[in-house]
């Protein structure tokens, strides 16, 4: 295991999380604003999460071939549920009184969404991002089976040559990554919640 492999794993996770946010938040907003597509969006992201990660990567590989594109696409699809669901629920939980005041002030629907509802819902949305990030750290291990690299390749090699030290050291690094992301994001999450409750 090298620093390059650790950085490669981190880059896969971070790129996939950023893209998950870019896809998941708009989908959650659509589910909130448009009742006609709400059930379809929420059902699809729930179904995607039930598919075994390795099977999902295998299906994607048929279309994109082996490599990081397949891994990142799989991680995005697999991580959508908490981001989409928390965006929808966060917006849906905004007080009707606040929405009524915004309308009374003459705000357009889009302006109200961006400047009133999204800031209030953001702590809840961030919780979904936190869950997606921690999930991506573990699921990215399967990248090695579709040519994506990362720490999964070290674990796979360790299993193949029955090297327990290699397996345990890689697992320890993954645990540190997951706990590190979770701890840092939990601190940010609590800060966001305090900031919101103070308003």
Low-confidence stretches: none
Work out the helix count.
8
Order of helices and strands: HHHHHHHH
Helix content: over 70%
Integer average pLDDT: 89
CATH top-level class: Mainly Alpha
Tell me the CATH superfamily. Answer: MetI-like
Our Rg estimate from Cα atoms comes to: 19 Å
Biggest sheet overview: none
Describe the structure.
The chain is mostly helical. The protein has one domain (3-197): MetI-like (MetI-like fold). Helix content is 84%, strand content 0%. The protein is built from eight helices and no strands. It has helices at 3-33, 35-50, 53-64, 68-92, 96-104, 109-139, 152-160, 164-197. α4 (68-92) packs across α6 (109-139). The longest helix is centred in the C-terminal third of the chain and has 34 residues, at 164-197. 36% of the residues are buried. The model has no long low-confidence stretch (mean pLDDT 89).
Features:
199 residues; mainly alpha; MetI-like fold; 84% helix
Write a brief structural summary.
The protein has 199 residues and is mostly helical.
Secondary structure elements and pairings:
Blueprint: H1 3-33, H2 35-50, H3 53-64, H4 68-92, H5 96-104, H6 109-139, H7 152-160, H8 164-197
Helix pairs in contact: 1-2, 1-4, 1-6, 2-4, 3-4, 4-6, 5-6, 6-8, 7-8
């Amino acid at each position: 295991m090298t620093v390059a492999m650790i950085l490669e794993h981190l880059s896969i996770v971070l790129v996939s999380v950023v893209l998950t946010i870019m896809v998941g938040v708009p989908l959650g907003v659509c589910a909130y604003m448009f009742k006609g597509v709400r059930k379809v969006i929420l059902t699809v992201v729930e179904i995607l999460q039930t598919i075994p990660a390795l099977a999902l990567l295998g299906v994607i590989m048929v279309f994109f071939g082996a490599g990081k594109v397949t891994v990142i696409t799989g991680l995005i699809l697999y991580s959508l549920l908490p981001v989409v669901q928390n965006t929808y629920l966060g917006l849906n939980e905004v007080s009707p009184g606040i929405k009524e005041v915004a309308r009374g002030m003459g705000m357009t629907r889009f302006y109200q969404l961006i400047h009133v509802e999204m800031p209030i819902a953001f702590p809840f949305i961030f919780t979904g991002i936190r869950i997606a990030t921690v999930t991506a750290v573990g699921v990215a291990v399967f990248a090695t089976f579709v040519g994506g690299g990362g720490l999964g390749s070290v674990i796979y090699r360790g299993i193949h040559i029955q090297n327990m030290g290699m397996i345990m050291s890689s697992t320890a690094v993954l645990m540190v990554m997951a706990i590190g992301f979770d701890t840092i994001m939990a601190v940010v999450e609590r800060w966001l919640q305090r900031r919101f409750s103070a308003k």
